[in-house]
Design goal:
0% of the residues lie in helices and 50% in strands. By secondary structure, the protein is mainly beta.
Length: 117
Amino acid sequence: QAQLVESGGGLVQAGGRLRLSCTASGSSISINVMRWYRQAPGKQRELVAAINSDGTTQYADSVKGRFTISRDSVKKSLFLQMNSLKPEDTATYYCYCPGTGTTVSYWGQGTQVTVSS
């Protein structure tokens, strides 16, 4: 019953922006620690951004200065603001909630981001 539901993907031109959302449902999911991953065809899934329990964030070098990860604990939602998009950002983006000692991990269903040149 617990799940992560993503939205916000789409087609944009290079230099454009998108805001991805990931909303958690179910009491078994905590969004204190969350990750955004992406996977392009023929490539490995890569970590894009992370937010830690203390609120600190980390970003892949390829997106630093352009992407921002944030969360809304009341709405139990995770966001990825993507600015100055490049064609190489084209991928399916997945939110991820790591498991704890007593919970399993959860993946969002993925949302497609396509950036045209």
